[in-house]
Please model this.
Amino acid sequence: MKIESGCAPMVAAVHDLSCVGRCALTVVIPALAAMGIQPVPLPTAVLSTHTGGYNGMAVRDLSGFMPECIEHWKTLGIRFSAVYSGYLADVGQVDTVRKLIEWQKQVSDALAVVDPVMGDGGKLYSAMPKEMPEHMLKLCSGADVITPNLTEASLMLGIPYPDGPMKTDELISMLERFEAKAAVLTSVTLTDGRHVNACRIRDTGEIYLCAYERIPVHFPGTGDLFASVLTGEMLRGSAPQEAMRLATAFLERTIAESHGCGAPVREGVQLERALKYLLDGSAQNMRAEIERIK
Ligand code: PXL
Model:
């Protein structure tokens, strides 16, 4: 899908609004906007902070608000170029997103990007309902692009989280179990020592790897930022593997520049400094190699 006219394409961004900690809508909105895309948020919940590294959050689940919001949009005849979902606060929201995608596929052939945000480090996020993975898997099956990390992929497929580096064959068979048109799996360590993101194109069976230098610090929100840049780049007309390459290069740089800046890790990456790379297009020139392995 190309950006054809001077008008910015609209993306329905279905994520939570975590006030503190730079994740979900607080990174999705600026990243998409910097790439020339109008983000239209559909908030799934409002939280005083994200749930990784803070306790005692104030939370409002917006499951009731979401369908009302969509009903209003229907009366306005809004057309999105993409529906892009992330953290859902309750299993009932999965159905709301499914219906939003169905509607937008009908009226504007929207791209459906599902980032099945549920966990990291082999575990579900603390506030995530235990039964979310099975529901999220169904949502992923109907998507054009999915972007699970290794934890989320393992949870959805009902297999143990790999406790060490993976063989390429294991990675391939994992990717082949997803039904989405393109599956982008993030944060994989291979037995040859490389850290990679991987992408499989369902219809051709092609699989691509993009290696990056891993810094041993885990900033929250990096998955959200990755999926946002990938979505933005696909709306500029790039293939999933090329969008993965750009998102990988941008995240590698952003994490490197955020590391050691002195701010607490739980507050996320220094996005305010990195946004310029998306605004001026220099992220496009950042080096990252893609390798086709199948
Ligand atoms: O970055 C993923 C994310 C999104 N939303 C909430 C979270 C997290 C990760 O911890 O807690 C509320």
